[in-house]
Amino acid sequence: MLTQINGLHHVTSLASGAQENNDFFTKVLGLRRVKKTVNFDAPEVYHLYYGDELGTPGTVMTYFPFPNARRGRPGAGEVAVTAFAIPKGSRDWWADRLASLGVKGIEKQDYLGEARLRFQGPDGDGFALVEADDGRAPWTGGDVDADHAIRGFHSTQMRLNDKGATAELLKFMGYEAQDNAGDITRFSLQNGNGAHVIDVETLPQAPMAAQGAGSVHHVAFSVDNREAQLAVRKSLMDTGYQVTPVIDRDYFWAIYFRTPGGVLFEIATNEPGFDRDEDRAHLGEALKLPSQHAHLRDLLEREYLEPIRD
C-alpha cells in the first residue's frame, strides 16, 4: 500500500469560454486566480488555475477553456461532482448567493450525514459545497468573507459502471472505505490534507461519458516531492499500471495513468509551487508561458487568447 499520497492536488476540467470561466470562479465562488498560462500541448488554449491565496495543493481547480467547445455527455467513467468545503452553517448563505447570481441546478441535500449544496457551473459542470469542520485558511481577497469562504476541495465523486477494480486501486493508494449510502461508497485517507475524500457512485447501466465542456479531464493527487512521486510511480508500475514518465508542468511535476473505471489520475508534486515565477501578491495576473512556447507570445495574444477582464 502506498503511504505517500496526501489527498487531492488539483482537478482539471474543460470549458467553452475563458471569460465566463474566470468570472464564475473568481466572482461567484470567490476563489483566487493563481495562474494564467497555456495548455502545454495546445498553447492556443489557456490553462487557468483557481484556488486559495497561494494555490495550495488540495484547493486548486484548473481549466482548459476551448472556445465554443461542445458540452460533454455525462455518464460512467468520469468525475461527476467536484465538491468544495465550506464552514458549518454557511449552506443557506451560499444558496442565496448562487441564486442571486443566476447559478443553475441549485439543490440542498443531506448526503452521507453532511449538509451539501449541489449546483452547476457555466458548462453544466457538477459541483457541490459541503459543510465541514475545516481549518484551512481561505482566500478572502474577493467579496466572500472568511465566515463563508471556500476552504479548498472536500471530495470528488466518480461515476463508474463497476467499482471493484477502482476500489482496490484506491485502497492501494492508502484510502479506506468509510461509508455507504445506496449507490455511493465513500473512501477516505487518514491524516490527509483536508481534500482527502473520494466518493464512488456505481451505476452498472449508465452509458460511458463523452468529454467536452463541463467535463473533468483528470483528477490529481498530491505527493510532497519528486522522490515520493518516483516511489509511487514504481509501485504503480510494479502493480501493472501503465504510467507516463515524469513531466515538468512548471509548477509541479506530474505522472498520469488511466484507472480501471476510465478516469484519468495524475500524481503531482507539491513543489515548486505557483510562486516560482510570480510574486505572491500578484499571482495569476500576468500571462506566463512555458519556456518551449515563449517565442509564441505575440502570436498567441494577438490571434488566439482572448483578453480576460478581471
From TrEMBL:
It comes from the Bacteria. Signal peptide: none annotated. InterPro entries: Extradiol_RC_dioxygenase, Glyas_Bleomycin-R_OHBP_Dase, Glyas_Fos-R_dOase_dom, VOC_core. Residues 7-132, 152-270 form the VOC domain. This is Glyoxalase family protein.
